[in-house]
């Protein structure tokens, strides 16, 4: 069983060797780091005519130096957003040096609209109480960036492209803004991101239904009014009015807004029923939000 004991002792070493073989040595995106000198020598072993081994002969070193290759990535390559007039939309951008040597990348952003929308590039530096490089714009992050500064291979620079919607922009208008990051080592190497910004607007829809297709005199019926903001901006000062049909009698205090019962009196619950008209002050409806109003009546 001596061989088994030897195997047990050797097994951990074999595991270590196997794991060591799995280690991956990091490399830059473009391969070996620029400036690295790759040297190589050859050796020769021989025996003389009498069969005696002679000292190993070593060649001179053949050396090559790795040259720099520039490459850059800016992500995301595209994004879209919505904003109201005079609002500024911020797009987070990460510029990465994919080359094999230190490089600096010039940053530029421009609007394709005519007249052009106002655009700027700000550092994601955490000013204003935020965290640096978190991709979330803070009010204090307003340091203009025209360059990434020197970036080592695989290093990144984070910033924001700020697009301001003109004060007089009409709902539905849009702009395309391009960000370009250009290598200062090789100006032919650049990355371009595209950001599309549309002027948001509220779009309200209204529908009404009744729970019975037929009803006899004395039957109680329930009306449901559904409102929906299908636009990309909040709708404000929303009022819904419904005139009660003359062929029915409204059931007092039966109005419910989103399932919450309301009174008919002109009080703080934003619902009033007077002179045969139901008036509801819905207020502000966020983009994509919806709600419902119900009330009961009896057929005369």
Please provide a written account of the structure.
The chain has one helix at 2-22, and strands at residues 37-40, 43-44, 57-58, 62-65, 72-75, 78-83, 88-97, 103-111, 118-123, 147-151, 156-164, 174-183, 190-199, 204-210, 220-229, 235-243, 248-250, 256-257, 260-261, 271-274, 277-285, 290-299. The strands form six sheets. Strands 14, 15, 17, 18, 19 and 22 form a six-stranded antiparallel sheet that branches. Strands 6-13-12-8-10 form a five-stranded mixed sheet, with no helix packed on it. Strands 5-7-11-9 form a four-stranded antiparallel sheet, with no helix packed on it. The chain has two domains: 72-199, Immunoglobulin-like (Sandwich); 204-299, Immunoglobulin-like (Sandwich). The chain is built from one helix and 22 strands. With 300 residues, the protein is mostly beta strands. Strand 20 (271-274) and strand 21 form a beta hairpin. Helices cover 7% and strands 46% of the residues.
Question: How would you summarize what this structure contains?
Answer:
With 300 residues, the chain is mainly beta. It has one helix at 2-22, and strands spanning 37-40, 43-44, 57-58, 62-65, 72-75, 78-83, 88-97, 103-111, 118-123, 147-151, 156-164, 174-183, 190-199, 204-210, 220-229, 235-243, 248-250, 256-257, 260-261, 271-274, 277-285, 290-299. Mean pLDDT is 90; it is low at 1-25.
